[in-house]
Automatic annotation (TrEMBL):
<keyword id="KW-0274">FAD</keyword>
<dbReference type="GO" id="GO:0016491">
    <property type="term" value="F:oxidoreductase activity"/>
</dbReference>
<protein>
    <submittedName>
        <fullName>NAD(P)/FAD-dependent oxidoreductase</fullName>
        <ecNumber>1.6.5.-</ecNumber>
    </submittedName>
</protein>
<dbReference type="Pfam" id="PF07992">
    <property type="entry name" value="Pyr_redox_2"/>
</dbReference>
<dbReference type="InterPro" id="IPR051169">
    <property type="entry name" value="NADH-Q_oxidoreductase"/>
</dbReference>
<feature type="domain" description="FAD/NAD(P)-binding">
    <location>
        <begin position="8"/>
        <end position="272"/>
    </location>
</feature>
<dbReference type="InterPro" id="IPR036188">
    <property type="entry name" value="FAD/NAD-bd_sf"/>
</dbReference>
<keyword id="KW-0285">Flavoprotein</keyword>
<keyword id="KW-0560">Oxidoreductase</keyword>
<dbReference type="InterPro" id="IPR023753">
    <property type="entry name" value="FAD/NAD-binding_dom"/>
</dbReference>
<comment type="similarity">
    <text>Belongs to the NADH dehydrogenase family.</text>
</comment>
Amino acid sequence: MNTHRTPRTLVIGAGYSGLMAALRLAPHVPVTLVDPVGHLTERIRLHEVAAGRPEAEVVHPLRRFLRHTRITHHTARATDLDPAARTVTLDTGLVLPYDRLVYALGSTTRLPAAHTERLFTAESAPALHKRLLDGPGRLAVVGGGLTGIETAAEIAERCGRDWQVRLLTSGGLAPGVSAKGRAHLHATLAALGVRVTEGARVDDPDAVDADVVVWSASMVPGTALAARAGLALNSLGRIDVDASRRSVSHPEIYVPGDAGGTQRMSCQAALPTGSRVASSILAEARGKAPDARPVAFVLQCVSLGRADGLVQSVRSDDSPRELTLTGKPAAFVKEQICRSTVRALALASRRPGALPAVPGLG
Ligand SMILES: Cc1cc2nc3c(=O)[nH]c(=O)nc-3n(C[C@H](O)[C@H](O)[C@H](O)COP(=O)(O)OP(=O)(O)OC[C@H]3O[C@@H](n4cnc5c(N)ncnc54)[C@H](O)[C@@H]3O)c2cc1C
């Protein structure tokens, strides 16, 4: 570090976690932010885009968050990380030095080995919607986790007149929710016309009897850059971190969000971990210990179209309790939670000092 008081901080990735970290750090230390995309996409709403919500409604220009700050944003992709030299190279050729690196490259859908043009993912939601306009037909969602369930429900609700929707999952539906919660998921999907097949493992999307296949089977962390640079990865292929979310092999690198740790990949963890790594970097610069509090999960929230949902109460380790909220009240709660993510980032932009007082973000 050049001085203990003003570490040059480089943030790669401007998703929920990286943007939150950058905004919280900006009043205190010089911050450079790197992301190839000039906007924040509300990734947690991509299933809504697939079903027909205009993409413009879930995309927010980064300048909206950055204009009140002194953050330098490079619209570029990080292509190389050299921890020995403490530099990151961009696809523009620029080499950026850092004292502290926030590695926030998140995750994407893990694609199967073979994929054809009838295969779509959350990342290709706008193209999927365009394809759905060319219905009628048969659509299969592969993956019985929360993202697959939300996708099947949303498409069935909005496009169910033209599209027969199936959901195929290798195990059981939503293994992380309670029996009561799962019963509600089954009942609501059935009412929306979604045919669920459990115990159906799909390795090759071409083997699925459908006109459109939406792949939601699992996520892959954005750790290729880290692996090439020699950062230690854990058994999940994510960056191995300590309680303060510092890389165990390279403690000058902090890893909020999906790219590191073992917690459920979620926006619910991305925002607090983004905020916490900022606190830790600032604490360290003041000669104090970094923030080692674990992120406590409170809820799992699933939208089931626009008029139904499941809010599942969980213990701090993310295991389900029996307490659930369903139906319209659950849909309302889920919508408020989705809105609160962009609101939290807007607050971090305008009044970063207020964040430590916000439950879950402090
Ligand atoms: C359809 C869907 C619904 C979801 N619903 C929920 C939900 O209801 N609740 C919940 O908690 N979670 C939900 N999630 C999960 C949630 O979206 C992710 O866990 C969250 O986005 C992770 O945030 P992140 O900041 O770690 O990374 P990301 O959001 O993945 O952001 C990563 C950023 O890194 C940038 N980037 C990538 N590569 C590079 C590079 N080489 N150089 C520079 N920048 C790069 C990307 O452009 C992106 O901006 C959902 C996900 C999907 C797909």
